[in-house]
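User: Could you check the structure of this?
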Amino acid sequence: MFNKNIKLVLAALVIVTAVWQFTENNIGNGIFLLLFSAIFILLYYKNEMILLAFLKLRKQDFDGATKLLNRIKNPEAALVTKQQGYYNYLHGLMLSQKDLSKAEKYLKKAVALGLNMDQDMAMAKLNLAGIAMTKNRKVEATKLLADAKKLDKQGMLKEQITMMKQQMKKGPQVQQRRY
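Assistant: Sure, the predicted structure tokens are below.
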């Protein structure tokens, strides 16, 4: 809702107020204000609209997630780099159901910007591999699948990766299923 710079200014003002409360021997108020300032600092690194969009996506509410992401105006200015990556990642995941070309654009941008978790990066590369496979770019799909396999340390995407490799061996007549 707020620009990232406004969040930092609000956090600084609340911290200054907390220090003032400490000097006035209002220790309880000062502690509360320090904890309250942590909310603004957290929201600087984790955008509230992206967090809400993740929750909508978990409930399979793609329209609601899209509406939340569209509320972020000018993501390059409003979000830090990793948040921009997740912004593009979420758009790519939602568009992978409808428009593969736009989904590929968003997912490539998300991979370029970077994602915090290896699992999210693996999922993005797995989706990119699926898109490349549907467009008959097997070399690119193979490379992306290998990258996804390296990033999937917990083995959560192991089944999807092996299924996609089997489909690549069968040839272009089989349509790839995206996950």
